[in-house]
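Re: duplicated header lines in exported structure tokens

Our pipeline writes sequence and tokens for each protein into one text file. With two proteins the header for the second block appears twice in some exports. Here is an export where it did not happen, for reference. First protein block:
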Amino acid sequence: MKMLKDLHHVLKTIAQDVEVLPAVGGAVEDFERPDFEEREDQALNEEEKVFEIIYERDPRGICTFRPVAPLGRTDFHLFRYFLDGSFRSYFLGTILEHDRETPVHFAQVGACVLYRDDHGSLHREALEVRNVLLAGRNRLSDSVWKRLEELTASGNLSLVDLTENDIVSRVLSDLDLRNKATGKVRFAMHMLEVEMIQRVLPQLSEDAWLVVDGSLLFEPLLSVFARFSQGPPAVIGVSKNFRKDPQFVFGRGPRAERYSIYKLLADLQVAHRTAAFSARGGKVVFWYVRLWEQRNLDYPMMGVVKVELANPSQESVPSELLDRISQALVAERQVTPHGLDRRWHAHLYPIFLAERMVKEHFLSREVVQQFLKWR
């Protein structure tokens, strides 16, 4: 509650210097667009649209699809750590300063790492929640922005500039800062996730991997992984929603076959994976794994996850390693939050629990709306 009192003081004080148009009810929760994860995946690697370099090696040869029978924890306990982040964001109102105006948002971003022991029980390894106040610096005078910096410097609150572009929010127009706020909040969440990954890295090994919800294709995470000289770090990123525009080429010359992602995944059978492709010049290797058969799903993209593996050596990765990772992922789908999340068909249950734990540590919507009033 102290943080909310501090934030209430910030709002009350700044309202003495500028005109304020409050949101109805004091705070209106921002709801994330359902396709934002897909748009984010596209933004992280927008330069590459056609993938034709298969980045794995197997003396037996490379196939478009490979079977990956489930490899459960009791047979080989590969995944020990699971990381997910979440956020909750609110529109508080609009600051009006002469001919300038900016929306003001408050958000809580959080990330949680769960550890799974030999018996399969999950324990909280690390959890952190941060509070963020967002406004457009270029939409305010220097004096008002400086005042906001002074007011937020002493409390448990970070000030974020809505007009500053980053790799996530740059896909959204600066003309509508309310819409852009979601991207800025997501970027703040990702930066917290990077800190959590760095905290866990010393505990990882070839027999104890970390599964991260989402993509690995952003800085400063790639720079963190680039320090690994002896093989890839024991971290994978798993995306439930991913871009729909890439094309994949198998083979060379006139016999080369081109697949859209729809055709590629329509032909992908349950407990199978695709060949692995290169992104960012081989710094990341990615492929797709089908967790659920298509029979009871609406369309071919459902029941599939995109998997990313950091590859600092930029050399092709052994197919055996990619198979083992994929087998362990297929085994993770056995318990799912069916009916509790629209993305159940691509969920890994420990990731679902990590996200839920973060959300349980957020302030409730009712508490925020009660406290965050300008007057």
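Second protein block, exported in the same file:
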Amino acid sequence: MDILPPPVLDFCLTHGYGPIRRAVPLGGGCINNASRLDTDKGPLFLKTNSQAPPDMFEREAEGLAALTVPGGPRLPKVLAVGQDFILQEFIAPGPRRGDGEGNRWGDRKGRPYWETLGLQMAALHNVTSPRFGFTHDNYLGPTPQINDWEEDGYTFFAKQRLRYQAELAHRNGLLDSSDLQSLISLLPHLPSLLPPQPASILHGDLWSGNLHTDTQGGPVLIDPAAYYGWAEADLAMMALFGSPPDSFFRAYESVRPLTPGYRDRFDLYNLYHLLNHLNLFGQSYLGPIRAILRRYN
């Protein structure tokens, strides 16, 4: 068994879980180490990173708490958190047989998987704030995510999302000066390209790898980069590497209608995530970024 953080061992002993019988490594993460801990009271989920920023797991726990809302998607309960770890309930995975349109398999009420998620995401996005931002800065993967409060969503998205990532990429030598200027010239036009929206609580990093399924067929969200922003940005991220079926969007709009043409706007929101991927993984993401900039310049 790998050496586990002493606070995790102490938590298990003092909360009736007993000694950890086995730590089983789990795949799927590219930033942190993940393990299932087998205890006398059942399994727990542990994520560790000895190189993590000192507040990274605390900010993750804060995001999970903010996203836990009535009627919203399931999120793992946080049991303990430290500078180099977060300990959560273990949610056993189930097969996503409800991916197909018309498959009547999903939650305990018999809804299909994607319909369930659409209703839950609408409930989540109906939780709003008068301002854009979040209680603390947090992280999009390992990249700092700035969440200073702003009254105006266009200012928030321009300054703390697109410009922040673009200037970081330019400093890292990944985005040349003409690309940076092209993005900066786009920012004043955001009010004419994106509709006004309230500041909704967002998962913030909702790609398919952060969308899981429990044994009952219900959706589970993990690894948030939570903040109050435009709901369309969360939906856009869901479609960045493959899109949910139409049944998801129909269910979502049955609770929370969207401004027509929302799918045509997804590229603009996803500039933020593509720039972050450029900063994390390199030049393979430069082509899609330039294609979007050419579309809007």
